[in-house]
Design brief:
Low-confidence stretches: none
Structural class: alpha+beta
Shape: globular
Number of strands: 12
Strand content: 15-25%
Strand order of the largest sheet: 4-5-3-9
Mean pLDDT: 89
Largest sheet: 4 strands, antiparallel
Radius of gyration: 22 Å
Length: 296
């Protein structure tokens, strides 16, 4: 007898603004979802100032349990899905399979839609799961890959009229001085994790910018999450409005100017709810452990 299915709370999605249906999603397309699980203990404690958990202590006390992973693996097998990349500290597990099998497993209808001239996998309504998984599963991300963010940085084209009231540009160091940012701290020995959902940077640009401020160029390392890449001008020439390179450069330049001694790990992830969440978890864990994690 089939198990009773229930709605996964918080999973409802509305139709994306401007989405135009192209066709049903390709049932044979292979993809994966990230299933997030409950903690061993809820809620998280409020730690005293200066008290820090080691990754091992956090994993043991608040990571996902082996029994919960087993329940999700059994569910995956029932629907022909392959479980991969189980992580107790992230409380997540990936389920890989075809669009058809993932749709059956989570009770959704997936379609291909066009948003601003680009195609995405899209769903509306709720995700459903077997009732026995309801206490275990907190989220299922990746069925829908519509974009979650858009760039706000804008370049003023050369020669475009600028009002006389436009304020002059200020360097990062000048802004830091206005905010009384400590002058005797440069971030040496620290790691700054930056998350980017699009865009990219060029090392040659950094090597020009920082010396122009009288600073050494900080160490900046691009890290791939879920296939995200450090790519500049990836939306040219068709969609210049989607290019986020200016925002990526701004993030790196501001962080590097006020903390030139810190190492920067720039995590590039797909512009989806799954990519954003995976980037946050990867950055939090890897930067905390002072190592670089490359995720697919």
């Amino acid at each position: 007898m089939s198990k009773k299915r229930v709605v996964l709370p918080g999973s409802r999605r509305q139709r994306a603004v401007g989405a135009e249906t192209v066709q049903p999603a390709n049932p044979s397309e292979r993809t994966f979802v990230t299933v997030h699980l409950r903690r061993k203990e809820e809620p998280l404690p409020i730690a005293e100032h200066g008290v820090r958990f080691s990754p091992e202590e956090y994993r043991a006390a608040y990571g996902a349990s082996a029994n919960d992973f087993l329940a999700v693996r059994d569910f995956a097998q029932e629907y022909g899905l392959e479980a991969r990349n189980e992580s107790a500290v992230k409380r997540s597990i990936e389920l890989h399979g075809t669009v058809a099998d993932l749709s059956r497993a989570f009770g959704v209808d997936l379609e291909t839609v066009a948003i601003n001239g680009r195609n995405y996998r899209h769903r509306e309504g709720d995700i459903t799961i077997p009732e026995d998984l309801l206490p275990i599963v907190s989220a299922v991300l990746g069925l829908d890959n519509r974009p979650q963010a858009r760039p706000h940085f804008r370049d003023i084209p050369e020669g475009m009229f600028r009002p006389a009231t436009t304020a002059g540009a200020m360097t990062t160091l000048a802004v830091a001085q206005l905010y009384d940012f400590p002058k005797n701290l440069d971030g040496t020995g620290q790691i700054i994790a930056i998350i980017e959902l699009d865009g990219g940077f060029l090392q040659s640009d950094l090597d020009v910018y920082f010396p122009s401020l009288g600073l050494a160029t900080p160490k900046v390392i691009a890290v791939s999450v879920d296939g995200g890449k450090n790519l500049v001008n990836q939306h040219l020439p068709d969609h210049p409005e989607l290019n986020a390179d200016g925002e990526v450069a701004l993030d790196i330049q501001v962080a590097g100017a006020v903390s030139p001694g810190a190492k920067q790990l720039v995590y590039f992830a797909p512009n989806t709810d799954q990519g954003f969440t995976d980037a946050i978890l990867t950055a939090a864990i890897c930067a905390r452990e002072s190592r670089i994690c490359r995720c697919r």
